[in-house]
Amino acid sequence: MISYLKKKKSKGDLVKNRVKTLCLVYLGILLLSGCTSPTPAIHEYRLNVILPTLTADQTKCMKKTLKVDRAFSDKLSMSLKMYYIEGKYKQYAYSQSQWVQSPNDKVTQSVTEYIRAMQLFKSVQNADSKTKNDFTLELNLEDFMQYFDKNEKNSYVNLVVTCNLIDAERHTVYRTKTFRVRAKAKSDDALGGVEALNKTLNTFLQECSIWLRGVCLDK
Questions:
Q1: Are residues 52 and 30 in the same domain?
Q2: pLDDT over 80 (residue 51)
Q3: Does 86 lie in the same domain as 188?
Q4: 16 and 114 share a domain?
Q5: 58-97 pLDDT, tens digit each
Q6: Which of 69, 60, 63, 94 is nearest to 80 (CA)?
Q7: How many angstroms separate the CA atoms of 69 and 47, rounded?
Q8: How far apart are CA 219 and CA 163, in angstroms?
């Protein structure tokens, strides 16, 4: 009888220990889940290009075809990450903000669509076109960045693009011009940089189209 009671008590203790263990495991899970912070949302930004509503005047370029090559740039402008410069030497990337489309691809696309909307040339082909064209427009995206002083204040952006108009038949540079546009950001954050870069991109497109129109009038 005593042996039976001991066995029963032993089984009861085992059950209690198991219950305690399960409770401790469950409590640990609750504590870990409570301490784990949710992953912050990533804000995605795109640039909005304003296409011209008025077409260019009659020029000799309207009998010519143009191909816009994909822009040359460094790896930073080929990435979806949004980089900025602090002071003279420090470079960072926003942890919770990124581009929907890389600056390199956006500049290439915008130039193609803008010139096409102007109807300055007989046709404007994109970089993937395999057709033969009279001219090729090479783009060198040299700067597309937000800058801060050493205290992360007074933010501004720079956009620098060199355009080379190539005579496709002669394989020579017909005209070349470098455009530099700078704008102050309204706020010292990613959104302020995006708005300022959007402004500089549209300014560059307007200046580039005026330059091309002048080249066509000189032909």
A1: no
A2: yes
A3: yes
A4: no
A5: 788 899 999 999 999 999 999 999 999 998 899 999 999 9
A6: 94
A7: 20
A8: 17
Torsion from C-alpha of 115, 118, 122, 127, nearest 10 degrees: 20
Both 47 and 106 in one domain: the answer is yes
Distance CA 170, CA 77 (A): 31
For residue 151, pLDDT over 90 is answered with: no
Residue 149's pLDDT band (boundaries 50, 70, 90)?
confident
Identify the CATH number of the domain in which residue 118 sits: 3.40.50.10610
State the SS3 of 151-210: CCCCCEEEEEEEEEEEECCCCEEEEEEEEEEEEECCCCCHHHHHHHHHHHHHHHHHHHHH
What total number of domains does the chain contain? 2
Tokens found for residue 31:
């504590």
> To 5 degrees, how large is the angle CA 82–CA 146–CA 201?
90
The length of the chain in residues reads 219
Residue 25 bridge partners (DSSP): none
Q: What are phi and psi of 134, to 5 degrees?
A: -75, -35
* 77 and 101 assigned to the same domain: yes
Q: Domain range holding 22?
A: 1-37
Compute the chain's Rg from CA coordinates.
Answer: 30
108: number of CA atoms within 13 Å, CB side? Answer: 22
